[in-house]
Amino acid sequence: MTLKNSKEKNQLKVEKRKITGRKVKKLRGEGILPANIYGKKIKSLAVQLPLKDFLPVYKKVGEIGIVEVKVVGEEKPRPTLIHNVQLHPVTDKPLHADFYQVDLKERVTTNIPVELVGESPAVAQKIGVLIQPLTEIEIEALPTDLPEKFTVDVSKLEKIDDAFRVGDIKPPTGVEILTGVNQILAKIEPPTKEEVAPPPVEEKSAAEKEEKKEEEKPEEKSSTEASGNKSEEEK
């Protein structure tokens, strides 16, 4: 199991937003993403920023990387986590986002994704199939200590019922895992009947069946040969 956590600063510049409600549709049409900044002991603030600026940062940090949000008119940037990104149901383009302002000295609770890597011998040898019941686990840590992801190597899962559990993860210093230690992250299970059934016999086409019938018919004598034979008999 490995961890990855980038310490590189990610910054976004936003402006205070006056347009609210249904009128934000006009902003989206102009390539502007409506958003809000909120957090403990702070007043919620409506903001906006170019969608083209937001996309690369969100793609890079997701909801677990610190983003320094600089509000136009304010002296210091605000440390935040991106939360609750609403996506268009067809295009998956962000429609709205929240920036959760954090205290860098106060621990936060969030979910961290789990990525499976490597190849299980059980799968390679078609002994069983690999399942992943959990794709993320809940942790608590300081905002600056949040790992980008947990990476689980499944190459040691060699037989049926071999499993990798949450308790097998060794978190870095300062990170506490809240998900139950017996929760399964990856496991080898027996293949289903459908997965081990032999491939169906290919059904022959009607034309092929008809052709085979013709080949199996006894060879018929030509009318000329039949007439000749009859004449010989009559002699």
Strand content: 25-35%
Supply the helix-strand structural class: alpha+beta
The percent range for helix content is 10-25%
- Going by CATH, the homologous superfamily of the largest domain would be Ribosomal Protein L25, Chain P
Per CATH, the architecture of the largest domain is: Beta Barrel
Main β sheet profile = 6 strands, mixed, barrel
Number of DSSP strand runs: 14
What overall form do the CA principal axes indicate?
Answer: flat
> What is the gyration radius calculated from CA atoms?
33 Å
Question: Runs with pLDDT <50, length 5+?
Answer: 1-6, 221-235
Please identify the top-level CATH class of the largest domain. Answer: Mainly Beta
CATH topology of the largest domain: Ribosomal Protein L25, Chain P
Write out the strand line-up for the largest beta sheet, numbering strands in chain order: 2-4-3-7-6-5
Name the average pLDDT: 85
Measured between the Cα atoms of the first and last residue, the distance is 100 Å
Total helices: the number is 6
Return the domain count. 2
How do the helices and strands follow one another from N- to C-terminus?
A: EEHEEHEEEEHEEEEEEHHH
